[in-house]
Amino acid sequence: MDFKLVQGVDADNLEGIHSAYCICDNGISAVISAELIGGAVKGLLKSLEEPVFFFVELPCGEDEEKKLRKSKTDPFHYNLYYLDNCTLPVADAIMKRYGDLLINDGLCRFGFGSHKSGEEIYCMSYQSISVYGEAAKFEPALAALGVVKENEIKNLWDNFTKDTPGTSLSVEINGETVYDIPVNLKSEGMYLSDVIE
Length: 197
What we know:
two-stranded antiparallel ribbon; 25% helix; globular
């Protein structure tokens, strides 16, 4: 099966890239094709203990960066937003409502975690997903989607060179962007927690 890219990601060289995961020190590392990401998050969520939290990391705007970056070599920054003390049905509802946007946006990073166990599902750039926690608990969700277990995985970053770079950009779906999510969920208790590098 071909590896599909999300709307906000472009990569010239997909050689050797396929949906796969490996067990690492702190849990699971995976790279997942676009059409499987939603199912993966939904399946992985079921293994988190309530209450859970939802988080999203959004790149800072140009004006914010001008204040934060002192030199051209300084890293760029993300605003980190949290919505605490959710039930699993609420987490499912967030994915139902915003999943397409979160998954297809090439710039945002997002995930869910358990307040109780500290375990976390983290969807990062370029279709990489990390699960921090007891791997055996989460593996069935990936296996059910046909994501193969390997000793080592190859992700999109591994193929990036000067000649075959990757690009990521923000997307708009039904007139919304990921920047609307914290605004829309503010009334539910979503808050800006931190600015991270």
